[in-house]
């Protein structure tokens, strides 16, 4: 159980890092490298950006849940 949570935590960390880097920032971020910068400047908030926000939030919730579960398992045993 602990090993599975640790694997999920690592995967969620990597995925969340990629999602955060794909967000459009003041300078455009990495999203402008993949062609997202020009389109998002023309149309404001796109469906892709909204979905990216949702995916980032879901990944962050999974990440926090894994940390809490690992802490509880470490404290009270499995």
UniProtKB/TrEMBL annotation:
For this protein, the record's InterPro entries field holds: SecG
Secretion signal, residue range per the UniProt entry: none
Query: Which GO BP terms, alphabetically?
Result: intracellular protein transmembrane transport; protein secretion; protein transport by the Sec complex
Question: Topology with regard to the membrane?
Answer: Multi-pass membrane protein
Please give one Gene Ontology molecular function term for this protein: protein-transporting ATPase activity
Origin superkingdom: Bacteria
Keyword Transmembrane helix tagged: yes
| Pfam families (alphabetical) | SecG
Q: Where in the cell is it found?
A: Cell membrane
Residue ranges of the TM segments: 6-22, 55-76
An example Gene Ontology CC term for this record: plasma membrane
* Keyword list, A-Z: Cell membrane, Membrane, Protein transport, Translocation, Transmembrane, Transmembrane helix, Transport
Any idea what job this protein has?
Involved in protein export. Participates in an early event of protein translocation.
Identify the PANTHER family for this entry.
PROTEIN-EXPORT MEMBRANE PROTEIN SECG (PTHR34182)
Which NCBIfam families does UniProt cross-reference here? secG (TIGR00810)
As for family, the record states: Belongs to the SecG family.
Question: Under which name does UniProt file this protein?
Answer: Protein-export membrane protein SecG
Source organism of the structure: Corynebacterium spheniscorum
């Amino acid at each position: 159980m602990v090993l599975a949570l640790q694997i999920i935590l690592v995967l969620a960390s990597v995925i969340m890092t990629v999602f955060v880097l794909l967000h459009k920032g003041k300078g455009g971020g990495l999203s402008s490298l993949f062609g997202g910068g020009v389109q998002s400047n023309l149309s404001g908030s796109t469906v892709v950006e909204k979905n990216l926000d949702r995916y980032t939030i879901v990944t962050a919730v999974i990440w926090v849940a894994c940390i809490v579960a690992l802490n509880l398992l470490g404290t009270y045993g499995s």
